[in-house]
Amino acid sequence: MHETSLIPDLIEKIEAVAKENAATRITSVELAIGALAAISPDHLKEHFDEAVPGTLAEGAELKITISEDPLAPESNSVRLTSVEIET
Question: What integer pLDDT is reported at residue 3 of this predicted model?
């Protein structure tokens, strides 16, 4: 997993959701990590926290769930599952 491309792509998706909904701030972001995604929640959170200053997601709570099923269709991915916003 290459965090250098994963995190900017994730921030772009989160901010797109916020802009589509005329948000002034993102309060919470939920991600799902596939069983074969090759990134730990702590490592992902560390990179997320480094990337969000100056964005609408600055200060947002990051919630992460981990799949245990290596046969799931998205087992090697990190998916954005929810974005909570303030308008």
Answer: 64
